[in-house]
Design goal:
The protein is of the alpha+beta class. It is built from 14 helices and 18 strands. The chain has helices spanning 34-37, 59-80, 118-121, 129-133, 187-202, 228-234, 258-276, 285-302, 310-313, 326-329, 349-352, 357-374, 380-392, 455-478; strands at residues 9-18, 28-31, 47-54, 87-90, 98-101, 107-114, 127-128, 143-144, 157-160, 162-169, 173-180, 250-256, 316-324, 340-348, 396-403, 420-423, 433-439, 447-453.
């Protein structure tokens, strides 16, 4: 297996900084809502996204003809998405952190060249986790804020919210790696940012392409009748990743085609009528594909050295996902920030690995989705504390990131659709099971899941995943 050593990367342009056009954005303070405060503990563990594009030109061509336009279009995009160029400010307690943009704030930008095999890196097969991580930047460290007017320290710390790394694979392709702080905005906000940047670059500065993505910064519509901001501020937690620790894991992508999704839906409907005499609560692409992946991951635990004991099989497994509430709360589609609620589906491991495991998983996830539709904030006051408790107790929790509805593959810089998009965080939380979901590149209605495994687990998961789909086809033929 190839291994992307740091020596295979050469710095072509050291760190530069890209700001909105001078004078285009006034000094702005953006208060954090309870949706944002929920992610304060992740401020030291940024979201890392990686976009691969075909680019059949040498590095010199990129530096002379493409890089200037890439930076100019980024500057124009940051004029509208200016919080990403700003800083997260931590004032002394008990004051609440906030986002601050001032003239001259910027996004760090570095350009590297790699001698690695571009086509290898964009495959679905197992790739060393460190190969992916080398292509995504770290956020610059936090610094003390400027001194106050009387010369005394303000006691504030500020942290940059975004960093970008472009890596050129000469005559083959480029990757754009973006690290950003979750507190600034969720995946939908980031997707709008990337599609806006790509559109401005593709159209050579035509800002009319932003009409569908212009962010809405109005916080007045965010009501907090449950006092969630105060509750989340009191929750002391910190998400630690192992990005700087050698991690012997591999990244793999698994796709579920539209036709296979329809098979899953049909099987769940028929099995639910057979077992319960009624239709399932919710049968959607999200529900059925996540249910299938949940079952496959629990079966992986049950296989080999991880075989479940009798006590483990009767314990609960939790599937955590974030639900976008913009539509439910009637927020603008382009609301800038976080608008996510954590949801937990739970089921016995023994039932998940049983004959009707997919139905059990789909019922549990579907129930949570339906609860969200009826009462978006039901259980919200305990969602963060529950997450902390489950991790501290070492419970079996599977974390899902991303969305199959973000349309992030529409981020076309003029080089065509991205060849691959990775959520590079997957695999950085040690033994925690994580997976990402995005829409399929190849077909409308399909989905892609990104996972990280120990090398010896890949073969077993492959067998579980593909044999499960084959078995499903046979079972449907008998029903």
């Amino acid at each position: 297996m190839a291994n992307l050593q740091q020596s295979s990367l050469k710095v072509v342009e050291d760190v530069s900084h890209v700001s909105p056009p001078p004078g285009s954005v006034p000094t702005t303070v953006l208060p954090l809502t309870f949706f944002d405060i929920m992610f304060l503990g992740s401020s030291g563990s940024p979201i890392r996204c990686l976009f691969f594009y075909e680019f059949p030109f040498p590095t010199l061509h990129f530096m002379q003809t493409t890089l200037p336009n890439l930076k100019t279009s980024l500057s124009l995009t940051l004029q509208h998405f200016f919080p990403y160029a700003g800083n997260l400010v931590f004032p002394p307690p008990p004051q609440t952190p906030y986002i601050l943009y001032t003239e001259g704030d910027s996004v760090s930008f570095v350009v590297n060249e790699s001698t690695e095999d571009f086509n290898y890196l964009i495959g679905d097969h197992a790739r060393n986790l460190q190969e992916i991580q080398a292509l995504v930047p770290e956020l610059p460290p936090g610094t003390a804020c400027d001194l106050s007017s009387n010369g005394s320290s303000t006691g504030c710390i500020q942290k940059p919210l975004m960093a970008i790394q472009v890596t050129v694979f000469p005559n083959l392709g480029i990757s754009i790696g973006v690290a950003y702080c979750h507190i600034a905005g969720d995946g939908r906000t980031f997707s709008d940012f990337m599609k806006s940047w790509a559109s401005i670059h593709r159209t050579q500065g035509d800002l009319t392409c932003l009409n569908n993505y212009l962010p809405d910064f109005n916080r007045d519509s965010v009501k907090d009748p449950l006092g969630l901001a105060s509750l989340f501020m009191k929750a002391k937690w910190e998400l630690r990743n192992s990005s700087n620790v050698p991690v012997h894991k591999v990244r793999v992508t698994f796709s579920i085609k539209c036709s296979q999704i329809e098979l899953l839906k049909d099987w769940i409907r028929k099995k639910c009528m057979e077992e319960n005499g009624s239709k399932p609560l919710r049968v959607s692409t999200f529900v059925v594909t996540c249910a299938y992946m949940w079952v496959c991951l629990i079966k992986l635990q049950e296989s080999g050295a991880q075989r479940l004991s009798s006590g483990d099989s009767n314990s609960l497994s939790y599937f955590q996902f974030s639900a976008d509430c913009r539509d439910h709360l009637k927020f603008p589609a382009t609301y800038f920030g976080n608008c996510l609620i954590l949801r937990f589906a739970a089921a016995k491991k023994s039932e998940l690995i049983g004959e009707n495991g997919i139905l059990v998983a789909a019922t549990a996830i579907g129930r949570e989705v339906m609860e969200l539709v009826k009462e978006p904030f039901k259980g919200a006051e305990t969602s963060l504390s529950k997450t902390i408790e489950l991790f501290e107790m070492g419970k079996d929790v599977i974390l899902l990131s991303g969305s199959a509805n973000s349309a992030v593959y529409k981020a076309d810089f003029g080089w065509g659709k991205a060849r691959k998009i990775e959520l590079a965080n997957i695999g950085l939380l040690g033994s925690v099971s994580m997976l990402s979901i995005i829409e399929s590149r190849e077909e409308e209605g399909g989905v892609e899941f990104g996972l990280a495994f120990a090398p010896d687990e890949v073969y077993r998961f492959n067998a579980i995943f593909f044999s499960g789909l084959s078995k499903l086809i046979k079972l449907l033929c008998k029903l």
